[in-house]
């Protein structure tokens, strides 16, 4: 393993990770603080079923539903997925297109190990964001009057972390496998967005319900960790997907020419 | 020479399609040599250097560095080689010191004294973010990272790009020391004047193929010279094209540029038949040498 590469990748990402994490903590606390004031009013809103599906049920009348919709369906995956994709793309295809990777790989480090080191750094970023989510949620829920147990908050953050790992690994696979920044960023973000839409809309159409199994959102939040706890099956799927995609990235960069 | 080549290529080919790439390169570079790889942009110089570092894979042929195959034993090669890429880029937000620390760590550490002496020698600004540095100052960092682990072989792509004359002098001195220590340098340039003081032999590359490999001394013997002759009246360049030794003659209004080999006698005497306002010799350069080889062997 290339420890210098892990350290370098983290050094390049710590500002965005820290600002993303602190921002998320702030949002989580504000969301908790707002609940007593607006939760009961918003809870009475008549939201169309399609939209409520996209928002994790849109059960704004309870603090669990409030967090599920605000954080579980939107901010959480947006921040963790966004930082994972941006970090993974910058560390692979970004460095390659910026002509830095060619010099790095003129040093005695194997390409696959270099990609593995970058994947580990992105995993650290993801875990840091998950930890920030956990801290912000613990405080936010307490300010909001309580109602979600520590175990369920931890389960949610664990599922979120695995979602981030899988999303980041997809960006690693595309970035390392192709060396194309726009393709890697667009591809990974596209899969995440389409996955979000599929997970929201597919269950509304009986014949298309099976499509939800193709969405990473299903394995992240399909079993609602805020009430159901850890979904081991979902974690296994996301974990295996993350490992396979990272391995594909490692294999992909070995076989091809560097682009710049 | 009987010693095995430090760098050897055999039919090395990288075909990018549409006639671009490198084709059938056979080259041997020996220990202690400073070998210049010359050619215009797009001739295949960087492609060759990147093939040696396994950054790109050959379409055909093979290459060895220090006896190691460039595709199978690339890691062993990269341990022993210092590389400066053309169009160098570094992490823009980090300081030179941090960047050098990283490259040193990738090699498992380097001798601090060597690194510090290179920083001092090039007067490199290592405490400023890379994005604040001029091209020349970035290039200094590139040179330091290439030399700081005292590699047996240096592969340098356009190493003088952006360096001011004083730093160029310092770099040339360093190349001399490296060569005297028995280490081998393979450097590319598109300008002969950049390398003529330091290289023992050069190869000239054109459109992916080697045109000639020889010492600079021998190349100079066959290099064409150019004279720029300004006349009082517009001239027909054909008056010069048929003269003995003349390779080419072109005219722009009243100025005729004549390229020739050997004595200038015939050209000067032909010019003297007209009113001459000025004669300006143009220093022989790479273009002249290209002219000699391209025109003489157009089929190659």
Features:
heterodimer; A: 260 residues; mainly alpha; 78% helix; B: 300 residues; alpha/beta; Rossmann fold; Alpha-Beta Plaits; 2 domains; 6-stranded mixed sheet; 4-stranded antiparallel sheet; 30% strand; globular
Would you write up a description of this structure?
The complex is a heterodimer of chains A (260) and B (300). With 260 residues, chain A is an all-alpha fold. Chain A has one domain (3-31, 81-140, 148-255). Helix content of chain A is 78%, strand content 0%. The longest helix of chain A has 40 residues, at 3-42. Chain B has 300 residues and is of the alpha/beta class. In chain B, helix 3 runs parallel beside helix 5 and helix 4 (112-122) runs antiparallel to helix 5. In chain B, the strands form three sheets. A six-stranded mixed β-sheet of chain B has the order 6-7-8-3-9-10, sandwiched between helices. A four-stranded antiparallel β-sheet of chain B has the order 2-1-4-5, covered by helices on one side. The model of chain B has no long low-confidence stretch (mean pLDDT 90). Chain B has eleven helices and 14 strands. Chain B folds into two domains: 7-220, Rossmann fold, CATH 3.40.50; 224-283, Alpha-Beta Plaits. Classes of the chains: A mainly alpha (260), B alpha/beta (300). Chains A and B meet through helix 1 and helix 4 of A and helix 2 and helix 3 of B.
Largest sheet: spatial strand order of chain B: 6-7-8-3-9-10
Mean pLDDT of chain A: 92
Q: Give the CATH topology of the largest domain in chain B.
A: Rossmann fold
* Strand element count of chain A: 0
Would you identify the regions of chain B where 5 or more consecutive residues have pLDDT less than 50?
A: none
Question: How many domains comprise the coordinates of chain B?
Answer: 2
How much is the radius of gyration of chain B in Å? 22 Å
CATH class value of the largest domain in chain B:
Alpha Beta
